[in-house]
């Protein structure tokens, strides 16, 4: 009788262990997948920037400092290793590009340029994708990290040698409510 | 009471099956009467049964295509409509579902709808009027609204219900529209055939209010409020959609190609002012609720 109870308990614990283990594996893969989503967009953005700089240069010769800053931030973002560094460099890049597009407003000929408009839309597109992929990534990371801290699953996480994943940094100005003109 | 995404999904899937069963019983009732009346006997019943099964299977699997076809939607050219494609891609990432197929319908009224069976087989269709009236934020809000219909399987229920019951309405519209448009010239030549078609059209016209009532019963107006809120949450911005709804509401001309079978699919009532088919809550109320959201 006692033997059966012990056997039953062992089976239940084993099943729970397998379930928890698999949950962690699933979550870890989803974190990786979510990161890949961001990464694809970042790469696309790095590809677009040189074209943008070339196009704008032809019209706005006096903005050399701005071009240099964009180019420098781009290479810094590309060489960054940790998610925090990549994120922060890219958030700065976003800001600088915003300035660049604001400056472009002063050049009517540039604003009439077909390929500039196309580039602007492409960059807005990647920017939005990065922002949305970041939302998604950070949500998954939060679930992954929280699951690692909760008892009793925390024991399984420890046995698997899991560590919390890094969040993708959210730019300062986006932490409050975003207000679009209405 | 708050429902999770999973509960919403299973509720929609369950409702779809219940609807298919109820509708099949109604079809069987009508068929039974016909078979009995014309004394077709056992063969009649067997054929009736086969017809109902095939009707359900065909319509269930193709309702999205029928819906798109009936409003005259065409796939959006990625070159010409790149902005639309971009926005759909972005919002799909935000919603965490694959990018739906993108369609455009040539119609000045600003409107949009989503259709399909599940997120893997989904389509979003917008009017050319919407594209010309909305800026990027507003378009994003509209697409996010549609994306939430896709994500919680509203599209399954709304499309299947609309098309299974609505095929008869679409047929009626085709016949009656054909009568009024081409009737004048052809009246002299084929009066015989015309009157039979007209008779069928009238029978369908009598039957259709019942079907419309059925569609309305299945699809609650709460769905639109929920999709507004979920859409705003997906893109973390209620103002784009609110502003879009304001613009949509200011356009008063009815849509040409929509019918009662597809009207409830659209983000906003395609027949402004016609309140007997009130699948949509008033736009003012929707905007008010959207702007009260804190994200």
- Count of separate DSSP helical elements of chain A: 6
Estimated share of beta-strand residues of chain A: under 5%
- Element pattern of chain A in H and E: HHHHHH
Shape category of chain A? rod-shaped
Counted by DSSP, the helix tally of chain B is 10
In angstroms, what is the radius of gyration of chain B? 20 Å
Cα radius of gyration of chain A in angstroms: 23 Å
Task: Characterize the biggest β-sheet of chain A.
Answer: none
Mean pLDDT of chain B: 83
Structure description:
The complex is a heterodimer of chains A (182) and B (295). Chain A is mainly α and 182 residues long. Chain A has helices at 2-57, 64-79, 83-104, 108-111, 114-149, 153-160. Chain A is 78% helix and 0% strand. Chain A starts with a helix and ends in a 22-residue tail after the last helix. Chain B is of the alpha+beta class and 295 residues long. Chain B has helices spanning 5-38, 41-70, 82-95, 128-133, 136-151, 154-186, 191-218, 222-234, 238-249, 283-291; strands spanning 73-75, 101-105, 112-116, 122-127. A 4-stranded mixed beta sheet of chain B has the order 1-2-4-3, sandwiched between helices. In chain B, helix 1 crosses helix 6 and helix 2 crosses helix 6 (154-186). Classes of the chains: A mainly alpha (182), B alpha+beta (295). Chain A binds chain B through residues 37, 121-122, 124-125, 128-129, 132-133, 135-136, 177-182, and chain B through 82-83, 86, 89-91, 93-94, 96, 136-137, 140, 235-237, 239-240, 242-243, 294-295.
Structure described in brief:
By secondary structure, chain A is mainly α. Chain A has helices at 2-57, 64-79, 83-104, 108-111, 114-149, 153-160.
Task: Give descriptors for this structure.
heterodimer; A: 182 residues; mainly alpha; B: 295 residues; alpha+beta; four-stranded mixed β-sheet; 66% helix
């Amino acid at each position: 009788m006692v033997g059966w109870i012990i056997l039953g308990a062992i089976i239940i614990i084993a099943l729970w262990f397998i379930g928890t283990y698999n949950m962690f594996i699933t979550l870890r893969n989803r974190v990786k997948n979510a990161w890949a989503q961001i990464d694809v967009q970042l790469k696309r953005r790095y590809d677009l920037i040189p074209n943008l700089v070339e196009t704008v240069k032809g019209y706005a010769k006096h903005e050399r400092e701005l071009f240099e800053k964009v180019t420098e931030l781009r290479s810094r973002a590309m060489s960054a290793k940790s998610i925090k560094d990549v994120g922060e460099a890219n958030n700065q890049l976003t800001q600088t590009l915003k300035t660049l597009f604001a400056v472009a407003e002063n050049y009517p000929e540039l604003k009439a340029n077909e390929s500039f408009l196309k580039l602007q839309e492409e960059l807005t597109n990647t920017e939005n994708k990065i922002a949305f992929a970041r939302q998604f990534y950070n949500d998954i990371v939060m679930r992954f990290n929280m699951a690692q801290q909760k008892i009793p699953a925390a024991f399984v996480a420890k046995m698997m040698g899991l560590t919390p994943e890094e969040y993708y940094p959210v730019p300062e100005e986006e932490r409050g409510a975003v207000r679009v003109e209405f | 009471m708050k429902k999770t995404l999973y509960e919403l999904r299973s509720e929609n899937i369950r409702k779809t099956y219940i609807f298919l069963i109820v509708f099949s019983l109604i079809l069987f009732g009508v068929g039974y009467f016909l078979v009995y009346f014309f004394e077709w006997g056992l063969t009649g019943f067997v054929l009736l049964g086969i017809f109902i099964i095939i009707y359900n299977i065909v319509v269930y699997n193709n309702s999205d295509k029928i819906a798109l076809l009936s409003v005259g939607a065409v796939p959006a050219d990625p070159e010409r409509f790149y902005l639309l494609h971009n926005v759909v891609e972005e919002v799909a990432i935000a919603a965490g579902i694959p990018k739906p197929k993108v369609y455009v319908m040539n119609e000045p009224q600003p409107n949009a709808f989503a259709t399909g069976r599940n997120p893997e087989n989904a389509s979003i269709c917008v009017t050319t009027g919407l594209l010309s009236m909305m800026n990027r934020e507003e378009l994003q809000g509209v697409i996010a609204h549609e994306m939430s219909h896709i994500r919680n399987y509203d599209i399954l229920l709304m499309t299947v219900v609309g098309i299974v019951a609505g095929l008869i309405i679409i047929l009626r519209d085709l016949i009656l529209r054909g009568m009024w448009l081409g009737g004048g010239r052809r009246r002299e030549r084929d009066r015989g055939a015309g009157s039979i078609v007209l008779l069928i059209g009238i029978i369908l016209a009598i039957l259709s209010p019942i079907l419309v009532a059925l569609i309305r019963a299945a699809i609650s107006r709460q769905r639109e409020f929920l999709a507004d809120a979920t859409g705003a949450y997906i893109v973390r911005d209620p103002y784009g959609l609110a502003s879009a709804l304001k613009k949509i509401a200011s356009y008063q001309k009815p849509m040409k190609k929509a019918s009662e079978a597809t009207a409830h699919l659209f983000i906003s009532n395609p027949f402004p002012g016609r309140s007997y088919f009130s699948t949509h809550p008033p736009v003012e109320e929707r905007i008010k609720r959207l702007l009260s959201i804190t994200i």
